[in-house]
Amino acid sequence: xxxxxxxxxxxxxxxxxxxxxxxxxxxxxxxxxxxxxxxxxxxxxxxxxxxxxxxxxxxxxxxxxxxxxxxxxxxxxxxxxxxxxxxxxxxxxxxxxxxxxxxxxxxxxxxxxxxxxxxxxxxxxxxxxxxxxxxxxxxxxxxxxxxxxxxxxxxxxxxxxxxxxxxxxxxxxxxxxxxxxxxxxxxxxxxxxxxxxxxxxxxxxxxxxxxxxxxxxxxxxxxxxxxxxxxxxxxxxxxxxxxxxxxxxxxxxxxxxxxxxxxxxxxxxxxxxxxxxxxxxxxxxxxxxxxxxxxxxxxxxxxxxxxxxxxxxxxxxxxxxxxxxxxxxxxxxxxxxxxxxxxxxxxxxxxxxxxxxxxxxxxxxxxxxx
Length: 370
Ligand SMILES: Nc1ncnc2c1ncn2[C@@H]1O[C@H](COP(=O)(O)OP(=O)(O)O)[C@@H](O)[C@H]1O
Ligand SMILES: [Mg+2]
What we know:
single chain; 13 helices; 370 residues; binds magnesium ion; five-stranded antiparallel sheet; alpha+beta; Dna Ligase, domain 1
């Protein structure tokens, strides 16, 4: 395997990626200035550099623990590639990817437009949305004029919160959000921003095996630092913390989330005052994730199981937004944002109280070895 250097993430980009990345960076630099923009790029590169090895190490720990729990033996075939055996049965996993879902169902679920349509047609609540091509955003502007803000713009096929901007209200913000999202895909979605908390629901063979509440990333003022300084300091802290995989991107989602609270990068929040720094939850920290171990309603279980079934997935992780996880989505006014067919299992382990974390790899491994 080629050694990874600090510029490896750049080297892995195609010319088109580089061009689109440049467009997104220039658009950001216009809003925040070249120096802050350069620091953000430096943080993003550093974070991308450590993420690969850190995630691999976490997968290693998750499977080693699960194999011990079910009495199986684990062999490392290559870094991040494992074979797990029990009696006559064997399975292989690549980091957190397992052999429960078929390749066709995975590709369908990963296309957010197609999977969204299939889920909506089956009557499961989803946000109102429209899709359009980044090169012709007319449908997007029409949707914006017709519906009540705020909105979210996202690439049709990306993951990990990449290219997503929330709190879009104005046509000028839509234009910038389109440039940001087009870095990842020319096919985009514009949708109504849902109110409530974000939850990750893991479904295995029709049963919900875990529910994690994912709060939006927050920072706390010290009475002296600007928000931009607080954010860069938090990224340095995360870089030094081996259990952290993601930095806080300084991007349009950050700027518009601050704007929605009457803040900007140069604001100096008073000591002890906490504010939201993003609305896209993918970049939150361990302290902002909580295992929900009270019961969830049969209706919500049924919503989750049928979303997985419609997409033909035995293992699925739903991102939902709801104001009450003890009600079904119809009743709470909640929505399914997406159904992940290759769930990142670490979300269930990296929670504020690790002693209460659900060891989701154990039932998954049992199913794999049945
Ligand atoms: N319509 C929406 N309403 C509220 N928050 C949203 C919406 N769409 C996305 N988000 C936020 O952005 C995150 C990422 O969006 P998601 O659709 O799950 O894409 P990804 O595949 O990148 O995770 C969500 O977990 C949520 O925090
Ligand atoms: Mg998601």
